[in-house]
Amino acid sequence: MSAQLIDGKLIAGQVREEVAANVAKRIAAGKSKPTLATVLVGERVDSATYVSSKQKACAELGMGSVSKNLPADISQEELERIIKSLNDDKSVHGILVQLPLPSHLNEERVLQLISVEKDVDGFSPLNIGRLAQRGREPLFVPCTPYGCIYLLDKAGVQIEGANAVVLGRSNIVGMPAALLLMSRNATVTVCHSRTKDLPSLTRNADILIVAIGKAEFVRGEWIKPSAAVIDVGINSKPDATKKSGYRLVGDVNFDEAKEVAGFITPVPGGVGPMTIAMLMKNTLRAAEIQNP
Length: 292
Known about the structure:
six-stranded parallel beta sheet, three-stranded parallel beta sheet
């Protein structure tokens, strides 16, 4: 293996320790406890698992959490009323609506309603708009892309002047990751399902961020020697040797890529732990903005 492993679990642990120390300091100074409100609509098992892990992280770091578990058939009006009440609640510093929402709900309207100062997921059009404009700073950056850039920085990867390729253009990962890289003076190419001759583009990337949800899609020969590879994907692959009958793999063929890349994140244990760590960091920042 030639690539240096970027240990997201270790780095996320360091972020969490730093957040916990600052939360304790804040509370000792008599200031409000940073508190995250999670809004879960319906009973999707994966969404419920994500929300539960976020609430657990709050408890572990000495932060408060409020949960709103709502029925799948909730009306748009009622959901909006709940968001508005959380906006008005001074004890709540961050609001996270777990996506995706049931199809009858207007996701954009819901995200627009969240106060920009409480938008710890960084998905409000105002925060994304600020991210997209030069000379503007968003209050919050979406947690997964934020985690990707943080990992690159911790690994000592030079972003300024680098050729960066982002595979995937979702609102949650791909597009904000591309905007963050541009804000750091990388030259960015965004690739997607309609991109022609994908391997020729990825082979030119000093930094490759992959978030497309296709198991082991990126092959070792697609990667530039010594490139930094950030694998956001998490997919299950049949594996008879495992008790569960499957194992988790990323969007990059790790065994091939690790022989070519200079830096690489594993799956699991790479980007995944960073998402919640950066959410906790954003929630603390929200409390500091609202109650300095």
